[in-house]
């Protein structure tokens, strides 16, 4: 009796198959023609009973298949409950711009916002400074996060000469929650300990994909079944104070300067208008529904709904699932 490993999930694309190994957090991609003696457009679901002898040998060589006659042992191998994705957080991640315009450059205002995020069990935060501050002020920001319930912080800071010191570098490396700090518009490129980065460029959002960027695990795979893995439970606050689902979104749902109580921000986040993209999974998006990477892709392109109920994108993806090639 042959069977796939329980947490090795075949995901069919139009032309290719990707096997998501959710335990080893890796994936393997093959042409559908390696496994089936039929045209690639005829089979929508993976059926091990229709796999050719050569396909079975390929699965065995990559250790994706179990051959066992022990029924008792076979029953002990069960899939994880990844389809039942649940999360206690009202928000899982936030991108916050700090400026004089939205007043969040002030430690008191930022502290109040962090209290709101803690109440939402928001554990992952990106802070992007839009105003120039001193080294001491930068340390205060890191200290506020250190005292909060936030688990991971990423900082983007416009370069100033006073930041390029051993004292600040040593302080940064002592911050356990800080994943990295990026100094943009720096005079040169530099990487220190894979945590402190200097770049000549200004950070810009991009929507180009690359297979090396993809990651597969139980959490992401489960979320992708019913949610948009980029927009789901995300919050963005812009440098003017605008409250949005994400920076790429056009709709503004309020202004952070008017928020004094956590409940006020929560009421905004819980509106259908704010959450309208949270449930747009890739099965509901044209082209994406035919892509073998759809359960590991974190896509920041804003989808729009068509008259037939499906969703589409203004910008084309740089991967074509019908040809199986990258641009």
Describe the structure.
The structure is a single chain. The chain is 20% helix and 22% strand. The strands form five sheets. The chain has an eight-stranded mixed beta sheet, covered by helices on one side. A three-stranded antiparallel beta sheet has the order 2-3-4, with no helix packed on it. It has a two-stranded antiparallel sheet with strand order 1-5. It is α/β, with parallel strands linked by helices. The radius of gyration is 23 Å and the shape is globular. It has three domains: 2-76, no CATH class; 93-269, no CATH class; 282-326, no CATH class.
* Nearest-integer average pLDDT: 92
Biggest sheet, spatial arrangement of strands: 10-11-9-8-7-6-12-13
Which range best describes the helical content: under 10%, 10-25%, 25-40%, 40-55%, 55-70% or over 70%? 10-25%
User: What structural class do helix, strand and pairing data support?
Assistant: alpha/beta
Rg to the nearest angstrom?
A: 23 Å
How many domain regions?
A: 3
Tell me about the largest β-sheet: 8 strands, mixed
Distance between termini?
41 Å
SSE order, as H and E? EEEEHEHEHEHEHEEEHEEHEEEE
Strand content: 15-25%
Low-pLDDT regions = none
Strand element count: 17
Helical segment tally?
7
- Name the overall outline: globular
What are the key terms here?
three-stranded antiparallel sheet; 7 helices; alpha/beta
Question: How do the strands and helices of this protein lay out in sequence?
Answer:
Blueprint (H helix, E strand, L loop, with lengths): L1 E3 L3 E5 L3 E6 L4 E6 L21 H9 L3 E3 L3 H6 L16 E6 L8 H13 L4 E6 L5 H12 L5 E7 L7 H8 L4 E7 L5 E3 L3 E3 L19 H9 L7 E4 L5 E2 L17 H8 L33 E3 L5 E3 L5 E2 L4 E2 L1
Parallel strand pairs: 6-7, 6-12, 7-8, 8-9, 9-11
Antiparallel strand pairs: 1-5, 2-3, 3-4, 10-11, 12-13, 14-15, 16-17
């Amino acid at each position: 009796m042959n069977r796939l490993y329980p947490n090795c999930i075949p995901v069919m694309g139009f032309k290719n198959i990707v096997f998501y190994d959710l335990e080893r957090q890796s994936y393997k991609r093959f042409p559908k023609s390696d496994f089936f003696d039929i045209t690639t457009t005829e089979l929508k679901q993976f059926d091990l009973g229709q796999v050719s002898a050569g396909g079975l040998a390929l699965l065995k060589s990559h250790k994706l298949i179990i051959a066992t006659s022990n029924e008792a042992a076979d029953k002990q191998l069960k899939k994880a409950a990844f389809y039942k994705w649940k999360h206690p957080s009202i928000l899982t991640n936030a991108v916050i711009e700090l400026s004089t315009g939205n007043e969040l450059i002030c430690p008191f205002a930022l502290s109040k916002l962090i209290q709101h995020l803690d109440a939402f069990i928001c554990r992952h935060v990106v802070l992007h400074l839009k105003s120039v501050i001193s080294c001491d002020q930068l340390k205060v920001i890191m200290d506020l996060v250190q005292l909060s319930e936030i688990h991971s912080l990423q900082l983007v800071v416009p370069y100033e000469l006073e930041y390029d010191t051993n004292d600040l570098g040593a302080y940064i490396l002592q911050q356990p929650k800080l994943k990295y700090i990026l100094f943009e518009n720096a005079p040169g490129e530099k990487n220190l300990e894979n945590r402190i980065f200097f770049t000549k460029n200004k950070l810009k959002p991009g929507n180009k994909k690359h297979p090396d960027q993809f990651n597969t695990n139980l959490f992401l795979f489960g979320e992708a079944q019913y949610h948009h893995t980029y927009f789901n439970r995300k919050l963005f606050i812009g440098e003017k104070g605008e409250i949005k689902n994400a920076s790429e979104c056009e709709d503004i749902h309020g202004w952070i300067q008017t928020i004094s109580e956590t409940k006020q921000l929560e009421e905004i986040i819980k509106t259908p208008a704010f959450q309208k993209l949270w449930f747009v999974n890739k099965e509901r998006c044209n082209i994406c529904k035919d892509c073998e990477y759809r359960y590991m892709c974190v896509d920041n392109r804003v989808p729009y709904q068509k008259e037939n109920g499906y969703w589409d994108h203004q910008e084309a993806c740089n991967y074509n699932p019908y040809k199986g090639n990258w641009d």
